[in-house]
Amino acid sequence: MMDDDATPHPTAPNPAPTGTRRRDLLRGAIAAGIGAGAGLSAGLLASSAAEDDDAPHASGPDTSGTPATGRAASVAADGDQQAGIARPDTPQPHGLLLALDLPDVPEPGAADAAFRDRLRELCAGLGRSIMTLTSADSADTAGLLDGPGDLTVTVGLGPRVMAALDPQLPGAEPLPAFAGDDAVPATRAGGDLLIATYGSDPNDVHRAAHWLAEAVPDATVRWSQRGFRAPGSGTVARNPLGFHDGVIVPRGDHELAEHVWIPDGPMAGGSICVVRRLRLDTTAFAAEPVEHQEAVIGRHRHDGSPLSGGGPSDEVDLLAKTPDGQYVTPVRSHVRAAHPALTGSHLMLRRGYAFDDGVTDGTADAGLLFICFQRDLRTFVQTQFRLDETDALTEYVTPTGSATFLILPGFSADRPLGATLP
Ligand code: HEM
Q: 111 CA to middle of ligand 1, Å?
């Protein structure tokens, strides 16, 4: 679970403090009909920020216990929630997502007892394999010759499978089509089973994912994507555009419970994951003057601080205006477009990776493997629809992959993965 007392890395950007209360107030004001810029006083914002005295401490990297061999410290696979979402605090530098198709998935609501039993056994088997993979036995069983290091595995089920069990379950709803999604090939959209592996050793990340996938009877890999992350602290690292990313996210047990973990029902402790493979025109973006890049994002490039003032981990002030009445955080900036106060949604935990699959016909197939977690799919959907409408960043973005998965609740030796599937 989250290490609320971890200290930030001294050389890395400051992780963000919580902003829930401030956001709640702002959201409340907007819900009451007081739109941004229409009279919410700076005094209210200032006092609400000052009230935020129960902020969990910022996340830092998990460095305690790093073996002298250079092998990264292990991360527990068991727990109330799966690994790879909020632990380790600092996402590992390499990741691989495998989206698999399962055979004979019934129509929505039509899963019979045999399908349910098969699915539960599949998940329980995956859970047992993950325990083996992340234990001292991993060298013998899966060929991780130097041990598991910080390898983590996260398992999710796609909407087809969840809907077959019960169309009312979290995760049963597919993603709607967003602007530009007609460019997403069917071969890189959706999937019934997600196996996501992360770690410091890129070979083991590959080996572990495929070792697990091969053991799933009759499953085929529909699509896969490797990703890598720049060095960072907590969720904050520079993204392929060179900007600090992952600054404003829920942190600490309290905010994760409020925004990320499904609170009740059979899937309590799970989460809704959205994956978007977003090709970025980094050449065009880099050719823009820095001031323009910063206006597109809404934060400074060198340290991630908001254009509206404050430090690297501070929230943007959507109401701040220049002396001539313009918003300091531009109207079409990405952070304004994505801000939960304006989308009316919860916070999402963004934990993305960069990808680079080379150049084909002169076009670089590289960008951001956007990965986020929330307790309700609407958080992502409402945000993405708003980005489609107003975000200046979309000019540089082409969606090339898209999927959502219900991340199963955590498991342990006594509680098999998928035990609560109905
Ligand atoms: C094209 C790829 C994208 C890039 C390069 C990108 C980059 C950034 C950057 C640099 C920030 C500011 C720092 C931070 O708070 O992390 C940010 C904030 C944010 N982004 Fe993105 N982003 C992308 C796509 C998306 C998508 C697809 C969503 C969700 C639909 C999203 C949601 C958010 C949210 C919620 C924030 C925080 C806004 C706030 O409350 O201040 N981003 N993004």
A: 37
In a domain, 416, yes or no: no
Q: 103, 219 in Cβ contact below 8 A?
A: yes
Residues with CB under 6 Å of ligand 1 are 239, 241, 243-248, 276, 278, 280, 297, 299, 315-316, 334-335, 338-340, 348, 368, 370, 380, 383-384, 387, 393, 397
Q: In 281-332, at which residue ranges do the beta strands (DSSP E only) sit?
A: none
Burial class (CB in 10 A: 0-12, 13-18, 19+), 146: middle
* pLDDT, tens digit only, all 422 positions of the chain: 333 333 333 223 333 333 444 344 334 333 333 233 332 222 222 223 333 333 333 334 444 444 446 789 999 999 999 999 999 999 999 999 999 999 999 999 999 999 999 999 999 999 999 999 999 888 888 889 999 999 999 999 999 999 999 999 999 999 999 999 998 999 999 999 999 999 999 999 999 999 999 999 999 999 999 999 999 999 999 999 999 999 999 999 999 999 999 999 999 999 999 999 999 999 999 999 999 999 999 999 999 999 999 999 999 999 999 999 999 999 999 999 999 998 788 999 999 999 999 998 888 999 999 999 999 999 999 999 999 999 999 999 999 999 999 999 999 999 999 999 99
- Which atom belonging to ligand 1 lies closest to the Cα atom of 276? 27
Give catalytic residue positions: 245
Domain housing 175 = 55-407
Examine residue 11 and state whether it is found in any structural domain, yes or no. no
Considering the domain boundaries, does residue 76 fall inside one? yes
This prediction has a pTM of 0.87
Strands in 188-238 per DSSP E: 193-199, 220-228, 232-233, 236-238
Mutate to test the pocket of ligand 1, among 319, 350, 379, 402 (most ligand atoms within 8 A of CB): 350
